[in-house]
UniProtKB/TrEMBL annotation:
This is Bicarbonate transport ATP-binding protein CmpD. Its EC number is 3.6.3.-. Transmembrane segments: none annotated. One of its GO terms (molecular function) is ATP hydrolysis activity.
Amino acid sequence: TSLIDIKGVRHAYKTANGPLPVLDGLNLSVPEGGFCAVVGPSGCGKSTLTRLVAGLMKPDEGEVTLHGEPVRGPRSTVGMAFQNPVLLEWRSILKNVMLPLEIVPGGLKGKAAEDRARYLLSLVGLEGFEDKRPSELSGGMRQRASLCRALVHQPEVLILDEPFGALDAFTREDLWQTMHEVKAKEPFTGVLITHDLRESIFLGDQVVVLSGRPARTQYVMEISRDK
Ligand code: ADP
Ligand code: ADP
């Protein structure tokens, strides 16, 4: 059974010029522990898809379920990271990573929270940078910190919306490697939005291609990888 199930989703945004159909037949299914990469040209509805999974909006038609339960409203059990990580400059890297634990009900507190954040920072190679401010880190390091922040509260689903899009090729490939290491130690169920086909194949165990206007699921490719 799937953790994330999206079936027959159609959606049009209401605009001043009338409805703008964006999705017309979106289907995807991610098992627990799966990592689904969604590829498609810019404007095809990839961010709309992430908002549906995060419960930030409801589709006109079709179903979005997590563990078989319809998604209603935003949930704290989703972790998100974006192309341009928004880290708070007045907080240290450690305190930025700990932020979701302060917000999510029942999150770890005190020493346990700090230990969890330090552990994740060490997994992504940021040991020793805990007390720095975001502006003292490179773009790749900020993206690593933002990944830790997205994972700190052990979200049910991790959504990565073009997280590596703004990085140079070397930094990006370093981060791909880190993603594999993180996933081995800190298993998650993820959706990765990207328009880099190489990235989708390198990271995903499933690649879903969206295209058309309005967009629909065109095909789904399973990537088998020796564990
Ligand atoms: P992608 O992430 O693939 O670039 P988006 O999901 O952001 O695509 O957007 C798909 C289309 O819907 C685009 O044409 C975009 O301009 C439009 N769109 C996105 N959000 C809104 C909104 N809130 N209101 C109206 N149109 C929107
Ligand atoms: P991305 O490139 O990251 O997908 P977008 O340009 O699609 O970002 O959207 C950025 C923000 O602007 C989103 O919150 C989206 O809902 C909003 N947006 C995008 N297109 C429109 C639009 N045509 N009308 C109103 N809001 C829009």
